[in-house]
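In practice, a research group might receive sequence data for several interacting partners and want a quick structural hypothesis before committing to experiments. The following worked case mirrors that situation: the sequences arrive first, and a predicted assembly follows.
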Amino acid sequence: MRIITLECPDCGTVVAANELEDNRIMKCPGTGCESVLRFDDLSEDDRSFYLDNKEQYRL
Amino acid sequence: MKGVLLAGGTGSRLRPITHTGPKQLVPVANKPVIQYAIEDLREAGITEIGVILGNKGRDEIQSFLGDGSDLGVEITYIVQGRPLGLAHAVGCAESFVGDDDFVVYLGDNMLKRGIVDVVESFQGGEFDAGIALQEVDNPTQFGIAAVGEAGRVTRLVEKPDDPPSNLALIGIYVFTPSIFDAIEEIEPSWRGELEITDAIQYLLDDGGAIDSQVVEGWWKDTGKPEDVLEANRLVLEDLDAKRAGSIEDGAKVEGRVDLAESATIESGSVVRGPVSIDKNTTIKAGTYVGPYTAVGVDTTIANAHIENSVVVGNTEITTSGRIIDSLIGRGAAINSAEGRLPEGRRLIIGENSQLEL
Ligand SMILES: [Zn+2]
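A structural hypothesis for the assembly, expressed as tokens:
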């Protein structure tokens, strides 16, 4: 199964696509990091793959 | 080599303790379970650790671990979110791991002897992965490995009806980045989770070499209350006790008793080790604290008899009854009903509590 994640460019914290999709926009959960992470920050390919196969990511 | 520490899961078997915090922070001998895993990784020379967070208890775990500097490691958080399986959790760590080999450690597991042997065994050959095994009495309840010459794994089976060995997989794995290709190839199991055993089996089927190491000494999965008590007993058995706190004249203290600097054992009480008593806690007159008991911070015990128990902390116990084999959550109060009428027990109990009266 393809695992889709986003890495915070500022602190390296990693967030899985299901979490990004649940929040759409979120403050980076890294300790002391102020960056904002968005589902839309994923590549277009990752986003469309995730949305086409949403069921397997939403247990 | 890097470390990936799993700190997700719901902790449902540890309710009500886990209603208010993640299972990885339940204390064993007054230290959160997850801290033992961090110390094992550090002892194996691993200081770059990715901590995988699920849906639950994230803030508590992050506020305890911080950036890792207090524990001598460097932590990167990896938010898995939904519990899509161990292989999904590992897969989420790909960008953190990069081209390194890495150890995966389940954050609610404890090992007496640490992971150095497992890591060294893996590094002693050209392997695609390494797994830690331990002999079990009931192999039909575990993931079981069939092992050939020199510890080479030949097959993995989940809860087999006809077990090929009694060697169970425990929650410690060593991987190379080839595991990420295997994870991409496998599909979720019947329970909807991406299984790490399927990913390792994929490596095997692909001609990969999988090392195994049978770990010596005890191994505990602290998922249930009785397991927490058992782990607490095992750790206290090897306790390196320092009596830094104050012990009044007239208190009877025997055996290995680890007493935090700001803790007090008052006159007229008996403490028989191995026992651990944490900061700002007072054992008052008339109390007996028996072997294999850990009492957390900011707690007062008066008149009670308590043994083989874990008191998480911020607790008041003034009952004169006997408390044994108990796990008492943070902020609980167990007071005396003596002299109160009508006679009887007065209970305010949270959901999923278990009492034997
Ligand atoms: Zn960040």
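Before designing any experiment, note the following. Chain B is about 20% helix and 30% strand. Chain B has a mean pLDDT of 94.
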